[in-house]
Specification:
The structure is a homotrimer.
Chain A (H helix, E strand, L loop, with lengths): L1 H23 L7 E7 L4 H18 L4 E7 L14 H9 L3 E5 H11 L9 E4 L2 H10 L3 E3 L2
Parallel strand pairs in A: 1-2, 1-5, 2-3, 3-4
Chain lengths: 146, 146, 146
C-alpha cells in the first residue's frame, strides 16, 4: 500500500513537473517576451490591445515572440464570454497568445452581479492581474499598456 | 566659536545622513518595489490605483513590497485634500504606501485656480512626477500604470 | 566596371554606416533615455505627453536626456499636420526630441479615410509603434506612458 502511494506521489510530481516544463517551453525560440496590459473600460482599447498583439506576431513571427495579455479592473470585459472580440481571441490563442484574467476583479464583479461573470474559455484566471504582470516582468517580459 | 560651528555643521550632516538612511530602510525586507502611476482624470482610475496597491500588500505582505504612488497631470486630483478616497489613502499610508505629488502639476494648477490646490497631508510634493518615476526605476522599482 | 561597382558599394556601406553612427551620437551625453508613448485619443493626453517631454528637458538639461515620443492607434492624431500642438512639436524637435509615427496605424487610417493622413513634417514613420518601443527599450530607454 505504501509502495502504491509513493508511486502515486511520484507520478503526481512527474505530472506537475511536466506541466511546468511544457509551459516554459511554449515558445522556446522567442526572442522577445511581451506582456500587454488592459485595465481600461473603453471598447477601442480592446481593439487596440488585440491589434498590438497581431502586429507583434506579424513583426517578429509567431515563434519568435511570446505575448500574454493580462486583464484587470474594467479591462476584464475583453475576456467576457460574450465580448465581440471572441473570434479574434480564438485566432490569437491559436497563434500562442495567452489571456490572463484577474481573480480579484472577477471576485469584485461577482459581488456586484450576484454571480461570477462568464469568461471566454481561452482566458486563464490568475490570482491577481498585477501580481501576474510582476511575475512575467521577473521572467524577462516587457510590460506595454496599449 | 569656530568649534561650536563645526560641531553644529557636523550634527547637521549626521542628521541629514540619518534621514536618508531611514528613508532607504523603510522596507528593508521588500522583495518587490513597485511605482504606480496615476495621470488620468477619471475617478475610476483613482479607485483602481488604490485597489492595485491593496492587492500588492495582500499578495506579498506589507513588509515584502514597497509601493509608491506618483500622481501628475489630471491624476493629481487623487491627492487633493477633499478627494473621496482620503480614508483609503490614510489606511494605505499606515501600511507603508507612499504618495508623491508632482510640483510642476501643482504649479500649473495654481496658475489656473489662483492658489495652490490643498493636498492630502500624506502626499509628499516631488520636483516632477516623471523625474520621481525615473529615480525610482533607477532604484529597482517596476513602473505599472493601472 | 567591376572596380567602379565596388567603389560604389563601398561608398554605400560607408554612407549607411555614417548614418547609423550619426543617429547613435545624437545625444552622446545623455544620462537618461526615455520613450514616451501616446496611444489614447484624448486631446489632453497630447498636451500631457508634450508637457512631460518639456519637464524632462528642464529637469535633466537638453543634452543629458534623450526623449522619443512614439504614437500609435488613436494617439497618432498628435502627429497629424493640422494638430493644434504643431508649434510645440517644432520647438521640442529643435531641442532634440524625436517623434515616431506607427506605419501600421497610418495604413489602417488610410483604409478608412481613402488616403493617408497628412503628418507633421517632424514625425518619422516607423514600421510599427510597438516594435519601435521594444527596440528603444533594448537600447536602454525607459518606457513611460503619460
Amino acid at each position: 500500500m505504501k509502495k502504491l502511494l509513493s508511486i502515486f506521489l511520484f507520478l503526481m510530481a512527474v505530472g506537475s513537473g511536466y506541466q511546468v516544463q511544457a509551459a516554459e517551453d511554449d515558445k522556446p525560440f522567442a526572442e522577445e517576451r511581451i506582456v500587454l496590459q488592459i485595465s481600461d473600460p473603453d471598447p477601442f482599447k480592446q481593439t487596440l490591445v488585440l491589434n498590438v498583439a497581431s502586429n507583434l506576431l506579424k513583426a517578429y513571427g509567431q515563434d519568435k515572440v511570446d505575448v500574454e495579455i493580462v486583464a484587470f479592473g474594467p479591462g476584464l470585459r475583453l475576456m467576457f464570454k460574450d465580448n465581440v472580440n471572441s473570434g479574434r481571441i480564438q485566432t490569437l490563442t491559436g497563434s500562442g497568445v495567452k489571456f490572463s484574467a484577474c481573480k480579484n476583479t472577477i471576485a469584485g464583479m461577482a459581488k456586484i452581479l450576484g454571480h461570477e461573470p462568464e469568461l471566454n474559455s481561452n482566458a486563464v484566471p490568475v490570482s491577481a492581474g498585477v501580481v501576474r504582470i510582476i511575475e512575467l516582468q521577473n521572467q524577462g517580459f516587457k510590460l506595454i499598456k496599449p
